[in-house]
## 1
Amino acid sequence: MNLLQMTIPELQIAMNEGRLTAHELTLFYLKRIASIDHGDPKYNSVFMVNPDALNQAKVLDLERQQGTERSMMHGIPVLLKDNINTGDKQTTTAGARILANHYAKEDSFLVQNLRQQGAIILGKTNLTELACFKTFTGVNGFSSLAGYVLCPWNIEEDPSGSSTGSAVSMALKLAPVAIGTETGGSIMSPSKKNGVVGLKPTIGLVSRSGIVPISSTLDTAGPMGPSVANVAALLSSMKTNDPSDPVTLTHSHNNIDYTVFLDTKEVKRIGIDKKQYEKVSEDEQHVFDATCKKLENLGYELVEMELPEVKQIYPIMKYEFKTMINKYFSDEGLDITLEGMIKYNQNNEKDNLKYGQDVLLEAQYQTSGKLVEQEYINALQERIDVTKAVHDIFKKHKLDIVYVLPYTSIGPECGFPTLSIPLGLDSKGMPIGSYFMANHFEEGRLIEVGHRLEQTLNLQLNPLKK
């Protein structure tokens, strides 16, 4: 069995047939993390592993032997970005030294749900400190607590952020799946850069309770993995309705098995937005053109169109951060505030301020924390206006999804689900990824198109065998 090439549905079959156990699978990945991620070079994508992972695997193996299979994620190891609370023997730090010894009071709602579904929390991945919300001049993948995460395709390249460790761990295949978080592109960007599949869900599909926050309007967690099938399986166990996160109550309580969309053929029309075509490299143009032809060969009708632009996503983050981060500290029983964190960093400048903290300073001293500023209200209004405009475009052109070159902030600002899958390598040997976007709560359409395209491309990307 080649565990690295097996999808989660295939791993489930192997475990049900007695050819594999969750304990064996977990140990396999623990060895891989030690030998590859913490070898030479040290890619540093995994911050720590769960000391109870193997024991949890044994319990889940026993359940399977007794006839219980909780879900498609039963016995499957998952890596979590280290801004997601786990109420266990692992810390939750967001890469900040002030949180180095922070053991969360309890699991985040997301992690509670994953454990109930039988997932094994394998460990925590490194991230750009505070999910890229500390400084404008920082380096992606760097945190004052854990140092640098390296791009496995070229250690001199920017690995992108902020879910850097989650993306790099998937490129190195250190687990079947990982979870990242996104506020303004932090799942899509590192997924594209590191040649893995990333899906940013509709805002409200996944609970944010117990995740170190930036913005209540924009934050979400999402699955990342080496294949669309694995991402679909994990997403099925992430969808929740959380009373403490009201936006998650805006969709149905029905469970959805997103793996069924791996075999559907419901998508008919794909919008193509290429207004940035002349601004990207020839390699990206070539891959985009080739992908459009492949989509047509798969039977999809391509419709040229243009999406509106967004300009005010940062003010939403800027004004909401103070309230959100202080609430998180309070809920965790920590004697910390945003202002206190700033002063802590200043008092430990050598260790904590290698790239400054100008974003934190803006959030603390240029906002009231009461969300009454006109700039903030204007940004929210832009979000409403652009959301309506995008809905109108989907309706006018009868679109199922859109394919964008090279990137748009519409997905994170307006809460639309987005998907990136690797499409190939450029002339320098670096991955080129896609950017697909669907209407709200239409993740299944992204999964269908992504999987069909993935099967057609049949790429075997491996940064360790360049």
Note: Residues 3-262 form a domain with the Amidase signature (AS) enzymes fold (CATH 3.90.1300.10).
## 2
Amino acid sequence: MSFSSQGFSSDIVRALTECHYEKLTPIQQQAIPQIRRGNDILAHAQTGTGKTAAFSLPIIQQIIDKPKSLTRGSVRGLVLAPTRELADQIANNIKSFSKYTNISVVAVYGGAKMSSQERKLQAGVDILVATPGRLNEHLELGNVNLTNLESLVFDEADRMLDMGFINAIRTIMAGVSTHPQTMMFSATSSSQMNALAQEYLRKPQRIIVNAENSTASTVAHVVYPVEEERKRELLSELIGKKNWKQVLVFVNYKETANDVVNELKLDGINAVLCHGDKKQSARRRALEEFKTGKARVLVATDVAARGLDIQGLPHVVNYDMPFLAEDYVHRIGRTGRAGQQGHAVSFVSRKEELTLVQVEKLIQHRIRRVPLEGYEVDSRDALLSKMHSKPAFKNRQSRTNNANDQSSAESRLRVMQALKKRAKK
């Protein structure tokens, strides 16, 4: 099925052709007709399935079909994203899709100067892409007016909840006096996200491209059992012996990221950093070096890596297992995209076996374990048998946030760490 068959203008089709968009992906085939009909959408699809085009192309076409004069600070279409990287990526994609139109696209997010963003917002904007926190700042200063909003998209809505943005979202929605067509996209599902959908969507069309909380069939999963203190050594050895050329490595802490990069450089492996202490310009440079092959490894924390779009990425390594099982799905969604083969590698220490069980339960798949000579750890079965008897394991849940949770993402991480410590006692 081609994009021209969806009734898009010749200007949009021309831009899509230049972007090498030829056939609609499954999420686009299902979502675009529903959005064109004006329906609200609740969609579950993996990263890299073409979600941005699915929601942005109908919005662009609607603005073309119904031209309106913009007033100071006004916005016709709003896309909310959890991180600056994702917001920047979405805005760049929309600019590419609308390059032959007069549609204005602006991205606002933390880490960039408020004054430059304010200047771009003054005349009004057709499509605004924003992180919730920075958008609220502009709303408080009167730089943005959402009273006449026509289209609203929550991209990676599950992640926004995980990061504690529910109150920021409610503040934003309080400034919307219209009933915009609302679309919610996520890779995973939870009761909290369903509650959010029920609050803001009107008779939504539910679209499920993959089974909820599933991983792409093009990704091969493998686990390497390893003691915590041997992980850096193992990473260098695998990259070297297996000759991995492009590897995205996820860690849970900025300090760990710094240590891993230093270790890799000592072993002659060019690596770059992407975490919250780095300025946006430095993170962009690191990503560009990684994409162009100047750097072989990109080491990133979860927050910094959201929205990274790396074509043909072959390897994702979970150096640290994520605190939430759902984040495993998000992390490995960076590889195996657009039908290409990918490899998801996880290092699992003794204390992370519980997380691995949660991940396997979530994705309904037992991950292949590969014990390596020289990196042996104690029996997994013996450890799990002991863990199953612990109350911390029996009462363990995946997501702990809810629609009324006012705690930050950091506090939830501390809770998960405390549970792990209790399980060791």
Note: Confidence is low (pLDDT under 50) at residues 398-412.
## 3
Amino acid sequence: MKKGLLVLILMSISACSTLDFEPIDINVEPDNTGVLDSKADPMAGNNERIIDEARQDGRLERN
């Protein structure tokens, strides 16, 4: 029984070793989005508005 199981395991291992796998091709393209416009980002636009209002009120000094 043990010899038959061992032969079966060895046959399955040898069957797996004869498979022909193709290499995985990974193409990475550079990100061409560039710098995002702060006006397109609602959070950045909101931050700029808050800073501008603080400068107008005198709460924030210009550097």
Note: Residues 40 and 49 are 13 Å apart (CA to CA).
